[in-house]
Amino acid sequence: MRFWSLEGYTPYEEARELQLKLVELRAADLIPDTVLFLEHEPVITRGRGLQFSRAARPRHMPLPERLPPGIAFAESERGGDLTYHGPGQLVIYPICKLDGEGFGPRRDVTGFLRKIEKVLIEEFSSWGFEAEFRENATGVWVHDRKAVSIGIAVRKWVTYHGVAINCVNDMSPFHLISPCGFSPDVMTCLKDLMAERGNLRAMEGWNGAGWRIALESRLARRMCGGMELVPELRRLPIDEALERVSKLVESGGPMGSALGGRKAPLPLTVTATPPGEPDYRVLH
Fold this sequence. Notes:
The protein is an alpha+beta fold and about 280 residues long. It has 6 helices and 12 strands. The protein has one domain: Bira Bifunctional Protein, Domain 2 (BirA Bifunctional Protein, domain 2). Strands 1, 2, 6, 7, 8, 9, 10, 11 and 12 form a 9-stranded mixed sheet that branches. The two termini are about 25 Å apart.
């Protein structure tokens, strides 16, 4: 498993383009499971719709007629409906093959979600929070407050899209929407949770830019099974990441010779799902 930390604030569509290319490479076994850490430029995204529940509600919640300047809008393949991403929120996109050989359990989408939630709940517990997941409300909750949203898609048994942890971000944009079909008042962030507990010592680590480096390293270690050595976290700008992946796609990847010497370029966009392959969108 490898980890890439994208520097600065990443536009949503550029992150989506990178994910789609990585999905094709991972499906062809040209790269290992790859996890992206990043912060997005301010954006409200809309997924494929809220999953079925017994509650009477529409598939999509309403968007405001006009968004404030500086907040973009984007459609997404992920499950769920509206959510907000922005600076100070750590976004994690795991590009994992559900083959049972790496982080992803074999062809078990629900098991993958529970495994992601377990990693996050363990991290929250290390800060002294009683975190939990809820049926039909995927994510991480601390009592009645939601600190983590999860919304994935699966293509050719490879996961993409993923996790948004509210860390030190401005929470007011959530009040523009009904995030994941909930009241915006349920949303919270780590810094506010720590302030409510009066954990001043822990809060010191969330001031300035250092919070992200520390949290990424801790989560990478947990995703690798708690190994003592910190997994390598390669830090690079989105432009360099896209360039590297595009070259891999065009060359057939470093494992091209192991695939019968095939050097034909892989498709740069996701094609139609073959019969029998999954095309899941899971609620975040």
